[in-house]
TrEMBL record:
Protein name, entry field: TauD/TfdA family dioxygenase
Lineage: Bacteria, Bacillati, Actinomycetota, Actinomycetes, Pseudonocardiales
Annotated EC: 1.14.11.-
InterPro entries, alphabetized: AlphaKG_dependent_hydroxylases (IPR050411), TauD-like_sf (IPR042098), TauD/TfdA-like (IPR003819)
Top-level taxonomic group: Bacteria
Organism: Pseudonocardia charpentierae
Keywords: Antibiotic biosynthesis, Dioxygenase, Iron, Oxidoreductase
Amino acid sequence: MSSSLSSSALAVERAPRKPPLLRVATPGDPTAWAVAHRDALRATVRENGVVLVRGLGLRDAAAVGAVFRGLAGTGLMAERESFAPRQALGGGVYSSTKWPANQQMCMHHELSYTLQFPGTMMFACLTAPAQGGATAVVDSPTVLDALPRPLADRFAREGWMLTRTYGEEIGADWTEAFGTTDRAAVEQYCRANGIEFSWQPDGGLRTRQRRSAIVRHPVTGQWCWFNQIAFLNQWTLADDVREYLVELYGEDGLPFNTRFGNGEPIGKDIVDLINGINEANTAREAWRPGDLLLVDNIRTAHGRDAYTGPREVLVGMADPVDLADCAPTTGMPR
């Protein structure tokens, strides 16, 4: 049974394995309501790491964009280095990442492989799927505490490495990921962001970047497991998909893969361990049309359950945070 507790200036409902839930009477103007309650909502997210707002009645992309921008304060962020295509809907609003509906998206922190990432993720549901499809969340300090200490210590020392192959056939190509067709601009971006790169004979691009796996939250001071180590690893792919891609492109040519910071492979046992800890601590609530989910992207990882039926969830990214402000142990440009 849930109980209503005061969270900052807003009363939220809490229940085991559920994100904190705030029910509101359907306002005449969702944007005006969001702006009026912006500070209280942000305080609620800071306290809980996440909050699901139910009752706003968001019905289209224009209304969602207005609410996102009203809550962002400093404006919405443009995505760079995307790992899979998503549709830009204008004004900093995006579709969800294109990912097979029958496959789970494992827990991850959005753009945690970049030097500047969103501090806040915003999700809004326009169409709820027939079954599944929740945007699940997990508390990152809890995950860090549950990891075996020797493994956590190794990631603290070495960080993690993301390897990518951008091509036209699978994943996002480099023009989509970097938002330009200018090779020189891509090279300049890579050098400025600590990314090793090499152009391939077929016109594709391969990159390697090393980042911190554990960071300190710049506001709360909490140490957080912050990365995409399990999600972007080959062992998280469905077996038949992984085998096909490895046979076709080789491990070095996969669209994305992760390694320890020193370049050594991360085995299936470690990926399964991380995913198991995430699942043991996951909170989820089925989407309803009009729902708004606000997530502290550093403290809280998010994923997406497999689903059936149409699903439309829009995304906004706000409150840019520099890795340099999160006590990084590795990954900064030299």
